[in-house]
Structure formats: C-alpha cells, structure tokens
Design goal:
Layout lengths: L8 E5 L6 E5 L22 E3 L4 H6 L5 E6 L4 H17 L4 E6 L4 H6 L7 E6 L2 E7 L4 H9 L5
Length: 151
C-alpha cells in the first residue's frame, strides 16, 4: 500500500480538544497525533461527531462512514455499542465508525430524519447510501456497509 493511496484519508475530531485533523488511514501504524494538542488520534473505536463537526467529517472522509445515532438512555443502543466497537477495531483504516448523540445534537438528528434509535447511517463521499434502524449483528452491519445502496 502506498502512502498516497487514493481513498484512504479521513477528517476526524480530536477526542481531547475537538480540533479537526486530516488523518492518512494508510499510515495508522505511524500513530497519528492531533496537530493542535499532540494527543493520539485513535480510529479503532467509534469517534464522536457533533452538529458542529458532522459536515467536515462526512465531507472530508474518503472511506465509508458509519454513523451510529444513539442516546445514552437507550437500551438497544447499549446493546449495539460493543458491536460497533468490534466493527471499528476490525475495519480501522477501511471504514470510519462515528457516533452521534441525538439528544446533544438535535439539528443533525433532525436533518437526517432520525425517528428511532439506534439508527445506523452509512455515507460514501458525504452522501447517505444506507440506513438501518434497530440492533443488528456485526455480519449484517458489514453487509450494510458493503452494499452499493441499501433501502
């Protein structure tokens, strides 16, 4: 894999200072760090997105993005969390897994017409290409991400 491989970059918010960073997913072994605070940027777990960062992250990421729309009080969301953790770990560098707290980010939840949680959205090149509401197993999540257009 070359350093300039097309389609392997992502924009992510630093979990510590919220600064947006451009990460070369083909060079994860180099342990990317935040350009502002110098702390590590780890893409082997779901990363938080907010009303303020969602457009930059979706628009600046060249791999598929899975967005878990959830709430802290939601039982099914808590069931889905370890599935997403495992998926993020297994697919790091190929898929960016994000999470959107719908209670704290109502504008984005409304914009994407989130009516139930958990809702999983899949984006390619900033456009929604698939959606699933409810808990699904990891294999079905993988199929959702791989499908050219799910309904």
């Amino acid at each position: 894999m070359s350093v300039t491989e097309v389609g392997k970059r992502a924009t992510v918010a630093c979990p510590f200072c919220q600064t947006l960073n451009r990460v070369d997913l083909g060079r994860l072994a180099d342990r990317p760090k935040c350009g502002h605070c110098g702390r590590p940027i780890l893409v082997d777990r779901p990363l938080a997105v907010t009303d303020a960062t969602v457009d930059s992250i979706l628009g600046g990421t060249e791999v598929p993005v899975v967005m878990d729309c959830y709430a802290d009080w939601c039982g099914p969301c808590k069931i889905m969390a370890p599935v997403l953790d495992e998926f993020a770990r297994e697919r790091q560098g190929d898929v960016l897994v994000t999470k959107l707290d719908t209670d704290r980010n109502p504008a984005t939840a409304q914009r994407f017409n989130i009516r139930a949680i958990p809702t999983l959205l899949v984006f390619r090149q900033g456009r929604e290409v698939a959606r699933h509401t409810g808990v699904i197993p990891r294999q079905q999540l993988a199929a959702l991400v791989e499908s050219p257009r799910a309904t």
